Amino acid sequence: MSRRPLHGVFIASHAIAEGAITRKQLRSLGYRRLVQGVYADPGIGLDHRLRATGVALLLPAGTAIGGHSAAAWHGAPFAGLHDPVTVLRPAEVRWAGPRGVRVHRTVLAPADVDVVEGVPVTSPLRTAWDVAALEPLGTAVAALDAMVRRGPVTTAALMSRLEGAAGEWGVTRVRRAFGLVDPRAESAPESRVRVALVLAGLRPVPQFHVLDGGEFLAKVDLAWPEAKLVVEYEGAHHFEAEKIIEDDRRYAVLVAAGWRVIRLSAPDLRDLDSVVRRVRDALDA
User: Fold this and answer.
1) CB atoms < 10 A from the CB of 118, how many?
2) Which pTM value belongs to this model?
3) What is the residue range of 98's domain?
4) Residue 247 dihedral angles phi and psi, to the nearest 5°
5) Is 210 a member of any domain?
6) What is the DSSP string of the chain?
7) Domain membership flag for residue 128
8) How would you write the pLDDT of the chain (285 residues) with one tens digit per residue?
9) How far apart are CA 157 and CA 155, in angstroms?
10) Contact criterion met (CB below 8 Å) for 183 and 149
11) Is the residue at 170 inside a domain?
12) How far apart are CA 59 and CA 62, in angstroms?
């Protein structure tokens, strides 16, 4: 057969029963299984949002995609491809979900749920609360930074939500995460590094504009202007040939102006305690 008979995301048993696809085609044409019983056309890019879209096909009424999974619809970075898809359910709905789904029982009002592109996801403010309550602090703040930066929620709305929230589930974790939000952060790794440094008492200035004699030299991820120290996180694109040359020139200009540069990459995120020590030593020096 020269073309795939079915596109998009679908429940296999339904598609087979309707004659849209056969079991043989499901196996032979390379359809991706997102979770048990749900498949996607292999031509669609596979990420956490696609997996959450697949899970949404299985959801009983009254439930919704929530937490870090819903944050992808509200301007935050996607959760990892293999991270569990978060689903919220009220107490009266009994549903455990397939493997790869994390179900959280909670109070879920109709006003807490939006339908986006056919998928029931928690509203931006409700998503922000659940991300802060359910996720590790660095992960939560990274998602919240992005949501505030891109506009679905504001810092004022987060603080207002905390008013009168004493005694609510997760409020201690939420208050801590909301207090660390800074929409100046431009990437999730930058947010995670900043949180680790702030918790260690080393509070940097995000997205600092370095000037020398009134002349603009560079915008850097994190800076301690008095110490003339900067921390730069370099994502994968920084290791492309042209970007390497551009970065080297940029850092040479900073060093010539008396600034010190600590360069970080993905492996450093696995040991943020070491990053904190490097920064502290540089500041002490």
Assistant:
1) 9
2) 0.87
3) 59-178
4) -65, -45
5) yes
6) --S-S--SEEEHHHHHHTTS--HHHHHHTTPEEEETTEEE-TTSPPSHHHHHHHHHTTPPTT-EE-HHHHHGGGTSPPPPTTSPEEEEE-TT------TTEEEEE----GGGEEEETTEEEE-HHHHHHHHHHHS-HHHHHHHHHHHHHHSSS-HHHHHHHHTT-TTSTTHHHHHHHHTT--TT--SHHHHHHHHHHHHTT--PEEEEEEEETTEEEEEEEEEEGGGTEEEEE--GGGGSHHHHHHHHHHHHHHHHTT-EEEEE-GGGGG-HHHHHHHHHHHHH-
7) yes
8) 444 567 899 999 999 999 999 999 998 888 999 999 999 998 999 999 999 999 999 999 999 999 999 998 998 877 889 999 999 999 999 999 999 999 999 999 999 999 998 999 999 999 999 999 999 999 999 999 999 999 899 999 999 999 989 999 999 999 999 999 999 999 999 999 999 999 999 999 999 999 998 999 999 999 999 999 999 998 755 555 566 678 788 899 999 999 999 999 999 999 999 999 999 999 998
9) 5
10) yes
11) yes
12) 8
Taking the C-alpha atoms of residue 24 and residue 45, their distance in angstroms, rounded to an integer, is 23
Residue 42 shares a structural domain with residue 63: no
Residues 171 and 261 in one domain: no
Q: How is the beta sheet containing 260-264 ordered, strand by strand?
A: 205-212, 215-224, 229-233, 260-264
Look up tokens 């990274």; give the residue.
142
Which tokens is 59 given? 């959801």
Token reading at 180: 């660390």
Same domain, 144 and 228: no
Please tell me whether residues 167 and 213 are part of one structural domain: no
